[in-house]
Amino acid sequence: MTVYAVNEQDVCLSNSDAEVSMASGGSSTGMKRKSFFVDEQTLRRAKRLLGVDSEAEVVRLSVERVVEMEEFWQFMNKTRRSLPPGSMESP
User: Fold this and answer.
1) Of residues 85 and 9, more confidently modeled
2) Can you tell me whether residue 20 is helix, strand or coil?
3) Is 54 helix (H, G, I), strand (E, B) or coil?
4) pTM of the model
5) Which end of the chain has fewer CB atoms < 10 Å from its terminal CB, N or C?
Protein backbone atom coordinates (compact mmCIF):
# COMPACT_ATOMS: atom_id res chain seq x y z
CA MET A 1 0.00 0.00 0.00
CA THR A 2 1.33 3.44 -0.90
CA VAL A 3 0.21 6.49 1.04
CA TYR A 4 1.45 9.97 0.30
CA ALA A 5 1.50 12.35 3.26
CA VAL A 6 2.70 15.70 4.47
CA ASN A 7 4.71 14.32 7.41
CA GLU A 8 5.93 10.95 8.64
CA GLN A 9 3.09 10.65 11.17
CA ASP A 10 0.57 10.29 8.35
CA VAL A 11 2.50 7.68 6.38
CA CYS A 12 1.17 4.13 6.34
CA LEU A 13 4.09 1.70 6.63
CA SER A 14 2.09 -1.53 6.68
CA ASN A 15 -1.34 -2.88 5.82
CA SER A 16 -2.65 -3.18 9.39
CA ASP A 17 -6.18 -1.84 9.89
CA ALA A 18 -5.18 0.80 12.44
CA GLU A 19 -2.45 2.26 10.26
CA VAL A 20 -4.59 2.18 7.13
CA SER A 21 -7.40 3.84 9.06
CA MET A 22 -5.11 6.59 10.33
CA ALA A 23 -3.59 7.22 6.92
CA SER A 24 -7.02 7.53 5.37
CA GLY A 25 -8.29 9.86 8.10
CA GLY A 26 -10.17 7.16 10.02
CA SER A 27 -11.34 7.49 13.59
CA SER A 28 -9.54 4.55 15.24
CA THR A 29 -6.99 7.05 16.55
CA GLY A 30 -9.49 9.85 17.07
CA MET A 31 -7.59 11.99 14.57
CA LYS A 32 -9.00 13.72 11.52
CA ARG A 33 -7.23 15.79 8.90
CA LYS A 34 -8.11 19.50 9.06
CA SER A 35 -7.18 22.48 6.96
CA PHE A 36 -7.07 26.00 8.36
CA PHE A 37 -5.08 29.24 8.33
CA VAL A 38 -2.57 29.92 11.12
CA ASP A 39 -0.35 32.92 11.78
CA GLU A 40 3.17 31.74 10.84
CA GLN A 41 4.95 33.77 13.52
CA THR A 42 2.68 32.42 16.26
CA LEU A 43 3.14 28.89 14.96
CA ARG A 44 6.95 29.26 15.01
CA ARG A 45 6.86 30.71 18.55
CA ALA A 46 4.67 27.85 19.78
CA LYS A 47 6.89 25.28 18.08
CA ARG A 48 9.95 26.70 19.85
CA LEU A 49 8.23 27.03 23.24
CA LEU A 50 6.68 23.56 23.14
CA GLY A 51 9.91 21.99 21.91
CA VAL A 52 8.30 19.92 19.16
CA ASP A 53 9.55 19.12 15.68
CA SER A 54 6.53 19.53 13.42
CA GLU A 55 3.77 22.05 12.94
CA ALA A 56 1.20 19.26 13.26
CA GLU A 57 2.55 18.49 16.75
CA VAL A 58 2.29 22.18 17.66
CA VAL A 59 -1.38 22.30 16.72
CA ARG A 60 -2.26 18.99 18.43
CA LEU A 61 -0.39 19.81 21.65
CA SER A 62 -1.77 23.36 21.77
CA VAL A 63 -5.37 22.20 21.37
CA GLU A 64 -4.88 19.53 24.07
CA ARG A 65 -3.45 22.12 26.47
CA VAL A 66 -6.29 24.57 25.82
CA VAL A 67 -8.84 21.84 26.59
CA GLU A 68 -6.99 20.83 29.78
CA MET A 69 -6.83 24.43 31.01
CA GLU A 70 -10.48 25.07 30.24
CA GLU A 71 -11.47 21.91 32.15
CA PHE A 72 -9.27 23.05 35.06
CA TRP A 73 -10.85 26.51 35.21
CA GLN A 74 -14.35 25.06 34.96
CA PHE A 75 -13.48 22.80 37.92
CA MET A 76 -12.09 25.80 39.85
CA ASN A 77 -15.25 27.84 39.22
CA LYS A 78 -17.50 24.90 40.14
CA THR A 79 -15.68 24.25 43.42
CA ARG A 80 -15.26 27.91 44.36
CA ARG A 81 -15.98 28.62 48.03
CA SER A 82 -16.44 24.92 48.83
CA LEU A 83 -13.62 25.11 51.41
CA PRO A 84 -14.31 27.34 54.40
CA PRO A 85 -11.81 30.18 54.89
CA GLY A 86 -8.94 29.15 57.17
CA SER A 87 -9.47 25.44 56.67
CA MET A 88 -6.07 24.99 55.05
CA GLU A 89 -2.78 25.57 56.83
CA SER A 90 -0.05 27.52 55.15
CA PRO A 91 3.37 25.82 54.84
Assistant:
1) 85
2) helix
3) coil
4) 0.57
5) C
How do residues 21-69 score in pLDDT, each as one tens digit? 444 445 567 888 989 899 999 999 999 999 999 999 999 999 999 999 9
Q: Are 14 and 8 in contact (CB under 8 A)?
A: no
- DSSP type of residue 39: -
Is residue 49 within 8 A of residue 42, CB to CB? The reply is no
What radius of gyration do the chain's Cα atoms show?
20
Domain boundaries, the chain: 1-33, 35-81
Burial of residue 31 (CB within 10 Å: 0-12, 13-18, 19+) is middle
Query: Alpha-carbon distance 24 to 70, whole Å?
Result: 31
